[in-house]
Amino acid sequence: MSLVEVRDFLARHGLAAHRDRGQNFLTDESLARVLVDLAGVGPEEKVIEIGTGLGMLTCILAERANQVMTLEIDRGLVRALKAEGLPPNVVLQHADAREVDFSQLARDLGGNVKIVANLPYSVGTPLLRELLNAADSIVGWSVMLQREVARRVVAGTGESEYGSLSVLHELVVEVEAKKQVRAGNFYPKPKVDSTFLVMRPKTPAMPRDELRRVEKVTRGAFKYRRKTLHNSLLRSGFSPEDVSKALVTCRIDARVRPERISPPLWRMLASELPKGKKEG
Predict the structure, then answer these.
(1) Could you give the C-alpha distances from 89 to 79, 126, 139, 158, 187, in angstroms and in order?
(2) Which DSSP symbol is given to 145?
(3) Taking a C-beta distance cutoff of 8 angstroms, is the pair 201, 173 a contact?
(4) What span, in angstroms and rounded, lies between the C-alpha atoms of 173 and 181?
(5) SS3 at position 117
(6) Are residues 172 and 263 in the same domain?
(7) How are the residues of the chain apportioned to helix, strand and coil, as percentages rounded to the nearest 5?
(8) CATH number at residue 214
(9) pLDDT mean for each 10 residues of the chain (280 residues)
(10) 22: alpha, beta or left, given left = phi > 0 and alpha = psi -120 to 50?
(11) What CATH number has the domain bearing residue 99?
């Protein structure tokens, strides 16, 4: 679907791209085929696609996969896609991906499920977090993200972009940045370039409650990333006694800053800190 075809599709159905929903439609079919190749979708697999858009990626996924369940929040696009028609092995669902239980959906599809998504910039980060909860049910997921968010996902210990998102992904999945995608490949053209990431869950999967604890500790600490680890944990609500005890147990220098703590150490630290933080 070329840029002209994208515009014609929207005009034909009286639609327009919504910037508040982060809608940027892929316009290069050859690039879409490369992305599906990188996602490694096989004929025995089912795919959950987040964000059907104009259906270009959907149709290519349908050529490779056993079944495609595609989720689209825009009611107008759903109406247009149904009118235009989709391949017979595609199920189009009008849904907000932020409200979907991906683990349950994968089980409903019978397992052996991958997720492929051109994530809207406006909701990319919360959806990334939700996908981590499905690591025990999904074979893997491949997502298009704005470049700055992708850098946060893949950042290593000590790098400027390293933060809570980096820690959680390092603990749960193997991540590869497979392709950089120019803004000119989308309509409307976004202000930033994108990165296509491919993720595969590590085994055994981290329990969800433990993942939430690590998230709580890291998000609190990285909020005060310019402080020492000791002070950042105090500012995020833990008591001096609990912080000091946990740092000693984990053999962590209280003077280091949060970005110097590796994901395994964050996991250990979270296990030593109390589940509930002191208020005030």
Answers:
(1) 18, 29, 20, 45, 27
(2) E
(3) yes
(4) 22
(5) strand
(6) no
(7) 45, 20, 35
(8) 1.10.8.100
(9) 87 86 88 97 97 95 98 96 96 96 96 93 88 96 96 97 98 97 94 96 95 96 96 96 97 97 98 69
(10) left
(11) 3.40.50.150
Tell me how far apart the alpha carbons of residues 238 and 275 are, in angstroms, rounded to a whole number.
Answer: 10
Report yes or no on 105 lying in a domain. yes
Radius of gyration of the chain (CA): 21
Q: How far is CA 151 from the centre of its chain?
A: 12
Question: 32 with 90: CB under 8 angstroms?
Answer: no
**By residue range, what is the domain housing residue 213?**
208-272
Q: Are 263 and 157 in contact (CB under 8 A)?
A: yes
As a residue count, the chain comes to 280
Enumerate residues 6+ apart whose C-beta is below 8 A from 49: 57, 58, 61, 68, 69, 70, 71, 115, 116, 117
212, burial (CB in 10 Å: exposed 0-12, middle 13-18, buried 19+): middle
Tokens of 12: 């034909």
H or E segment at 242?
A: helix 240-249
Q: Which amino acid is at 276?
A: G
The DSSP annotation for 18-86 comes to: -GGGT--EE--HHHHHHHHHHHT--TT-EEEEE--TTSHHHHHHHHHSSEEEEEE--HHHHHHHHHH--
- Residue 3 has a pLDDT of 85
- pTM over cut 0.90: yes
